[in-house]
Amino acid sequence: MKIAQKSSISNLFEKISNDKLTILIDHALLEPAYAQNQILQSTLKGVELLGLRHLLLKAAPESFHPCEETHLSSSFEKAFSYALDSTFRDGLFARGALAYQYAYESAVDQISSPPLDEALGFAVVHLCHWRVGGGHVMLNGLYDIDLQSSEALREKLAPLFLSEGIELFAYKKDAWLARSKHFINLPSASLSKAMNDDVLPWLIGVSKKDVANTDPSLEPSIQLLRRLQSEVQMFLYDHPTHPSAQNTVNSIWFSGTGMTPTSWDSLGLVCATEHHEHELFQNTKMQILCIHELTKPMQHHDLNTWFEGLKQIDELFFKPLAHRPQLQIILCGQLGFKIWNVQEKGGIRLILDTLKQRLKGERSTLHLLS
Fold first, then answer.
1. For residue range 115-148, what is the model confidence (pLDDT) as tens digits?
2. H or E element: which one contains 158?
3. 280 pairs with which residues across the strands?
4. How far is CA 298 from CA 8, 133, 188, 252, 306, in A?
5. What is the pTM of this model?
6. Longest CA–CA separation in the chain, Å
């Protein structure tokens, strides 16, 4: 795989080929509590999403794939595996290994090679904020951190991680990559699942929410990583990044552990925009465009920004791709994901289906997104 360069939306579109394309959008479906909100229902009446609606006129009936609330992996991770027709293992999504491959595999001079007889796994190390209150410790996302501060913090903490046999590498401004034998088969909860929840039921090593580890061989790695997490918290308490900032970094979260399945061997990152809000992957059969820009607004309960992001996605992606002959759309939410398979229809068929939709009454935006 080649190192993906930071890119603009226009450069990303230049990389989209005529192969089968899947558009996979994280946090695009509303949770039931939001969907039942009357103010939200009223607001959504003004959100038309014309590009998406035009595409769905040509789509087969949607299918909904539920995700268990207690599972460690997010619906996005499950949908990514589904789109690639690859084996899905809850809590072992291997996002860390995939990110390392496309970020560093070609940078031989920059990264030390592990011994040939030592198998190593990877993880994503998220910078996050733990808020204590009401007898619980809640996991909150960061409102913002700049890349320079993130890199300075990584350099300070690298010796602590290395003392436990873990190497740290740069990745994004709010996350790093880690390499160690401890991450090979160790399950971890997606940051998306644990966000805005009590951290205890999701701590690294559980088989699913609030269920203890039952594999004795994993226990040494679990204890080491939990101890390291505590040591990082103590370091950050003594050396805060921004003492006056809201939701400043005071802890870390491990996710994306496990080894990549063999079906991902031909998978590469073609293009990514800055901060990886948009990523275009490709294998021998298809391309998959992953869109993450709705994630933070939803996690921060900022529905105004979420609405604007949704409309922007419609303008930037759905409208320009409206005439592709073969397209799959996957919208993800907290409890599952919806799939539409879009195929170009003949003129008469398209007219009939359009009339049918109008006679039945167009489904509301709320229905599409919940």
1. 444 689 999 999 999 998 888 999 988 877 889 9
2. helix 147-162
3. 271, 289
4. 23, 22, 22, 20, 6
5. 0.88
6. 69
